[in-house]
Amino acid sequence: MKRVALYAAALGIVIFAGFPFYWMLVTSFKQNRDLYVGASDLSHIPWIFNDPPTLEHVKLLLGQTDFPRWVLNTLVVVVAVAVITVAVAVPAGYSLARLVGRWGERMGMGIFFTYLIPPTLLFVPFSRLISLLGLQDSLGALILIYPTMTIPFCTWLVMGFLRSVPWEIEEQAMIDGYSRLAVILKVAPRLIVPGILTVVVFSFTLVLQEFVYALTFISSVNKMTVSLGVPIALVRGDVYHWGALMAAALFTSIPLAIVYNAFIDRFIQGFTMGAVKG
Amino acid sequence: MTLPPRRTFADREEVLGAVMLGPALAYVILLVGVPFVFAILLGFSNATAGSLSFGWAGLNNYRAILDDPIFLRALRNSVIVTVGSQVLVVILATAAAQVFRATFRGKRFARFVLLLPWAVPVSLAAIAWTWIFDSTFSVVNWTLKAAGLLHGWLYWLGDPALALFAIIIVQAWRIFPFATVIVLAGLSSIPQEIVEAAIVDGAGFWRRLFRVELPLLLPVVAVAVLFGVVYTATDLGVVYILTGGGPANTTHVLPTLAFQRGILGADLGQGAAIAVFLLPFLIVVAIGMLRLAHRTEVGGAR
Q: Are A121 and B279 inside 8 Å of each other by CB?
């Protein structure tokens, strides 16, 4: 009886969480004839393929829309933001964990709190800043602004990560005659590799997910990122190409889901801020 | 390269520390701190997107929006959506965490599916839900009708109350996986002896849940809710894509109205003034976080 309740609850969760993705999948490969039957027709079951599946929506998406262009734009922004974030947040995290002493904790907390200041509060001043810099409607605007979201969180992540790395290895290197700087340049990088990987992954997921700044700064269709282009520019007037739309959403979700599954525990360590002690 | 064991630049920790921290601090101060202050100042100005002039307007923007029924409605909607979705999130997440701490067949797959709503970009999730709630093709309506639960017709995104309900569902859907994972992390950190002691004392499942585990979980659930409040109250994507604030401006929340007035309407001053009303949500969250951090610091000294 208890097992039955457990499986029923698990099934309920899976259905609620997964239903929109099942719906993306079905919609992406259904023929239009099968797709656009009004929901008041009870004899036509929308949950299944009533006609054979088709690739026409995928072909439309990849061949006749700007989707490939948006993927490319997104990758450009991902790489640039990841490089900036690693270059800025990793040294900062190291500094807070190992160098600045008792102020590190507080300053780290202060930097982390800026992560809580939302884009929806900052997009108005940023829109003015971006036009002052002449960056409106360019990927440069996103590359400049996205690190404001990745740096605080990643600095905090790296700091927390280093706390779990024993100090002895670096200490031994110093006893062996390395200067403090030499330890940072030669010993520490090897220790921080998993932390750097987490930073890169976080930057990747953030850029793929971000919508508000992209919506504010980018207006040309060929400059858009995936998360902006799909919901905004794939809809032409009132015509929704639901098959192509859902295919785009599905293709973007899959890599993100795989990455999340692999890195979830590291992200959570960052979010719980030590409120959870393992 | 052997350096003498003397304190040179290469050995001065505070200098190295400042140099390495500098760029991050500069980025945060210049591109978060300054714009944040500017965001508040803009609320008192008559700045527009067309010109670069910046005139002091005193409280005019605030007077204008507080007289504006659309703004008051947006403020109310923000509160309703945030509170409503977070109540759902807490219930769903505690239930889901109880499921996922047990072992069962297919758990890895279930966990993968659970994380999907959190991983997918909010704008793409919102467009999927727009299709699910479509006025003609809504699969929800079909299913309810097929089950005999619905006799008329539900215009999900065309009716203000239903649209608000749909927005709450989508926000809860998007955030409960995150909360579940956090609560799970908290469950695994409860000392096993305490739970076993409760079992030995004859406490059943519900008693154990409400008397032993939930009180111990409170700080973790609070973390989940605090992040949930930030994510929901400040989110623009869901409402912007699902309803665009319509029908007839009835489902705006603060971020979508700020966007409409500040960016689309080019009235930067009023847009900024509307966004400033997000601050109370954030201040509550920041205070909550600080208190939790303080508590774990104190408790951590055990």
A: yes
